[in-house]
Design a protein that fits this description.
177 residues, mainly alpha, Skp_dom_sf, Periplasmic chaperone for outer membrane proteins Skp, signal, unfolded protein binding
């Protein structure tokens, strides 16, 4: 009898805990940051500025390569007229020019090169605007987590009902065209 009372008491205690403090589900959603960036007019400006810089730097790199090829052609044409010492001097000059070209490519297009630094510098204000809009949308819709569909192959399936990209566009003052 006493055991039955304890069980009844525990059952009553556990049911009041759920009634007094109901469990709520967390809301999740996702966005497509690539979609958002492509819809933003500032992104097109950033892309055109980066393209202009990239074209300029590629021309400089091509010019260096052309100079190296011309130096090799000149060396081959003069090879029979040069002494061994003169040949080695010209060959060393060409090798230095090749090192200069490689250093230029690494400095500009390398992992932490000028191109990627400029890209980060130009995109940072736009990414901040988008992040702020995402933050407001998440708070307004009580989202616990928001995933980025464009961030990688992590999302295998997405239900369009949980896509908040349009809300972020709206928050940014852009309309989906």
């Amino acid at each position: 009898m006493e055991r039955r009372n304890i069980l009844l008491f525990l059952l009553l205690l556990s049911s009041t805990a759920f009634i007094g403090n109901p469990v709520t589900a967390q809301k999740f959603g996702y966005i497509d940051s690539e979609f958002l960036l492509n819809k933003h007019p500032d992104y097109k400006v950033v892309q055109s500025e980066l393209e202009a810089l990239s074209t300029q730097w590629k021309k400089e790199a091509q010019q260096l390569e052309k100079e190296i090829k011309d130096m090799y052609a000149s060396l081959q044409a003069e090879e029979v007229l040069l002494t061994e010492e003169m040949y080695q001097d010209k060959l060393n000059t060409i090798k230095e020019k090749q090192k200069e070209a490689v250093a230029f490519n690494n400095r500009v297009f390398g992992v932490n090169g000028q191109y990627y630094q400029k890209q980060a510098e130009l995109l940072q204000p736009l990414q901040s605007k988008i992040y702020d809009a995402i933050d407001r949308v998440c708070k307004r819709n009580n989202l616990a987590m928001l995933f980025d569909k464009a961030a990688g192959p992590l999302m295998i399936y997405t239900d369009p009902r949980h896509d908040y990209s349009e809300f972020v566009l709206e928050e940014l003052g852009l309309e989906n065209k």
